[in-house]
Amino acid sequence: MTIKTKYLGLAEYNQVYQSMVEFTDGRDELTGDEIWLVEHPAVFTQGRHGKAEHIINPQEVPVVQSDRGGQVTYHGPGQAVIYFLFDLKRLNIGIKNFVCLVERSCIRLLKQYDIESHTIAKAPGIYVDHAKIASLGLRVKKGLTYHGIAINTRMDLTPFSYINPCGYQHLKMTQIHAHNPMIDVYKVLTEYAQIICENLDRPIFS
Q1: Under DSSP, is residue 105 helix (H, G, I), strand (E, B) or coil?
Q2: Could you report the per-residue pLDDT of 40-81, keeping only the tens digit for each?
């Protein structure tokens, strides 16, 4: 079964979040899997078990409660956000293996841009020299996923200093632009989608 990609452009976080919930709640065994590609206006999102003390000083940036895993993170223009609306049972992949696949796909993408990246045990996401370049947060309900991965591409990283990103004090953040200034957000979104579909051995269409 093919995986459909939808490019949403710049879209408000809450709007996309509610659409993901509605899509997931309304799907059945015949509903195809989708990947949503998006940028968000500036927003902090707090995970299901996120602790308020990790939001140090939000300034003028709104804070939105989410049902994904993980702690607080920042989304803003210039960040490539990829959401996975997948049926893991149909794909015959467990959640731990899926997380590894998401991370592996990001590492492969960055390598195409001549950026060497890595994971850190018990700290989900992707890092370049221990500075975080991509954050991961998922929700799985009855084998159905939504939320996804956010890859810092060409953005203002300052708002990350207003929080403890992903619950870690003094976590250094980085982005693709710092290592390869020729890469834009649309390229990251579309090429990541292609890679993860190849890794799942599923054709892709848009």
Answers
A1: helix
A2: 999 999 998 888 899 999 999 999 999 998 899 999 999 999
Look at residues 73, 74, 79, 6 and name the one whose alpha carbon lies nearest to residue 39: 79
pLDDT in tens, 73-117: 999 999 999 999 999 999 999 999 999 999 999 999 999 999 999
**Secondary structure of the chain: what % helix, strand, coil (to 5)?**
30, 30, 35
Please choose, from the candidates 100, 173, 183, the residue with its C-alpha nearest in 3D space to the C-alpha of residue 136: 100
What does residue 123 show for φ and ψ, rounded to 5 degrees? -135, 85
* Other CB atoms within 10 Å distance of the CB of residue 174: 19
Active site residues: 166
Helix (H, G, I), strand (E, B) or coil at 125: strand
Sequence-distant (≥ 6) Cβ neighbours of residue 51 within 8 angstroms: 71, 167
How far apart are alpha carbons 21 and 29 in whole angstroms?
16
**pTM for the structure as a whole:** 0.96
Neighbour tally for 22: CB within 10 Å: 10
